[in-house]
Hints:
11 helices, mainly alpha, transmembrane helix, globular, ABC-2 type transport system permease protein
Amino acid sequence: MTTATNDARWVAARAGLLRGWLETKQSLREPGDVLWYFLMPVIFAIVLLFMRGSTVPGTDFELGAMVLPSIVGMSIAFGGLTGPAGTIATDREDGTLLRAKATPNGMIGYLVGKVVMFGATTLISIVLLIIPGVTVAGDLRLDARTWVLLVLIYVLGLVSTVPIGVALGSLFKSASQTGLLLLGSMALMIPSGIFYPITALPTWLQWVGQVFPYYWLGLGARSAMLPQEMAAVEIGESWRTLEMFGVLGAWTVVGFIIAPIVLRRMARRASGAAVAEARDRVMAQGW
């Protein structure tokens, strides 16, 4: 029985991989989505451009080079948390979630599909950010170790944030309410050391920042792209690589435990009548 159950879950996971690929292609055909993928990298590149000539306090290291890796980490967390939250409410309203519930192990496939889709679209944004960013932020370390560590951070960052984003999105009654999560995510950037060394913040804010993935993904990206001496401006004057993988691993476990439970409960409430009512409401608003 256990073997059969595991086989069924693997089948669902493989179906999720295909689903994620198809959703990615569909997203790339949407002008609004494509504009969003390009817009944020362009804005960040402009921010880095204005930082040219500025240095990290107490050093001669370029501030733009310090900030670029942090933005890479932030982009992973931002794409993994806020992206799924917006789509989960939409999928509930158009019946997608109800169909996933009716399929054996459908929630597993649904979750895997979201990880694949937002992994691909987030990767596009990161590539579009790094290419111009490197040209305006010097002093970066870009060797084989950098790329291996960035790949690990990217993968772990997605699997640790997408399930949490799905779970949070399921708490909203409509897609329009997910803007609250966007505001909350932007607020979390303040204590996460994204645009300024976290050690310059009050101690209690440093502890707040270390609870969430934003700080750890930014720290991991900095450890991959910055020279070793820049660890001096971090907490404990260390990149704390093991702690980074440990915290993100804990978020991954929590997310994959909580998300399927929350999705099943939400889908249980999403009856056919409720889906029809939501569809009629959306159509009325559009009219």
